[in-house]
Amino acid sequence: MNPRILLKVKGASKSDVEHILQVITDCYANLPHNLDAVEVNIFQNTSDALSFLSAQSKAAGVKSSSFDEDFYAYHHAWLGLPSITLSVEKLNTLPPELADACIRHEVAHSVLHGEIRYYVIPIPPPYRRLKEVCGLSDEYLLDLTYLTAVAVKDYEATKLLYSHNYRVDQLQYAEHLLEEGFETTLWKIVEHHPQAKALFLTSSLKVPFCIKPLLDQQNIHLQKKLESYLQPLGEYRQLLMEVVDESAEIFTDDTYSNIQTAAEIHCKKILKRILTQPTQRNNSSRTLNLYKINS
Ligand SMILES: [Zn+2]
Questions:
Q1: Are 195 and 284 in contact (CB under 8 A)?
Q2: Distance, CA 284 to ligand 1 centroid (Å)?
Q3: Whose CA, among 101, 128, 213, 237, lies 20 to 30 Å from 23?
């Protein structure tokens, strides 16, 4: 049975709202879930959607993600209910099938991660151990945890959709992520600052994890595109792919345990290598807008 939809609309046309609701309800009908209710917030303007999310995160006392003008759609469960927020203005800039794929991605999050515990994640032990060795702040470790969780949750969302016959649209979604391009300029800036570099590489797990479930024999071209997307990272391209491949191999159906697995492997292959270097110029990464989140 479909969950009850608690709908909020601002500025969007009737036909856009109807189409979005259709995509959402069809998707719930195709995915296994046990949701009773879900909030769906449809805004015509991106700025209204962003103000709404920032008010919600404030009300929940959650540190707000750094949303920006690239925002299309977002899922959270900060207030205890799964909540999907969409910007029609942005979705309408995409080909229709791709816009639908974005919406389904958020529906998958609501099915898998529609509880607050998926949004308030404790620092995993491998990152805690890193604190003792490298003297990192809790705030920094929480950022690492947040970025790792975002990447793992995206893997799970793609996997759920792909295994329920949302194949063509999820491939399109993956190609769209790759076409957005890698933030080479930012990488050049952070490359020489260990803490900023480690945070940047953690944020770079998101795209390969999101795409990983699609990388099978039929989609070799995607593997090639992913490799060239990560090309600017030099030696870290291979390491990042190893983190994704080795984690995915032992992932289970438990998000918490998957985050722990990814953190463990990421720590071993990448974070320790960067954060335990003897010559530290640990410029705080906090002044840099290191990552953008389109959940
Ligand atoms: Zn996501």
A1: yes
A2: 27
A3: 213
Ligand 1 center to residue 174 CA distance, Å?
12
β-pair partners for 43:
10, 87
Phi (first) and psi of residue 199, to 5 degrees? -70, -40
Kindly indicate the confidence band of residue 1, based on its pLDDT and cuts at 50, 70 and 90.
confident
> Ligand 1 centre from 129 Cα, in Å?
28
Q: How far is the CA of 112 from the centre of ligand 1 (A)?
A: 11
Dump pLDDT digits (tens) for 194-239.
999 999 999 999 999 999 999 987 888 999 999 999 999 999 999 9
Q: What separation in Å is there between the alpha carbon of 74 and the centre of ligand 1? A: 7
Q: Cβ(230)–Cβ(182) under 8 Å?
A: yes
Give the distance (Å) from ligand 1 centre to CA of residue 155: 8
Q: Is 137 helix (H, G, I), strand (E, B) or coil?
A: coil
Phi-psi region at 80: left, alpha or beta (left = phi > 0; alpha = psi -120 to 50): left
| Contact assessment for residue 84 and residue 73, using Cβ atoms and an 8 Å cutoff | yes
Report the separation in Å between the CA atom of 125 and the middle of ligand 1, taken as the mean of its atom positions: 24
Average pLDDT, the chain: 90
CA of 152 to the centre of ligand 1 (A): 9
Q: What is the pTM of this model?
A: 0.92
CB 28 within 8 A of CB 53: no
Ligand 1 centroid to Cα of residue 134, in Å, is 30
